[in-house]
Amino acid sequence: RSGFITFMSNVDPKFSTISRRTLTRTILPDLYTKMLHGLKAFCSMATFISLTLDLWTDRRQRVFFALTGMNNINEGYY
To answer: Core-most of 8, 63, 66, 68, by most CB within 10 Å?
Structure first.
């Protein structure tokens, strides 16, 4: 931890760390809400949505999940 803080202070002297509490109670929920609203708005403009699901495990039997979505939106979006 101290090595990371030293490194970042050399990269950017204005850098300051945030607490875990701030991250989990403020920043991540706000980011989640913002991303969710953006995704809903983007999907509402789609004429169709195609989803692909992929599941796999690594050698340590950890499960990974990937969901890929593609859509065709109207020309007025851009």
So the answer is: 8
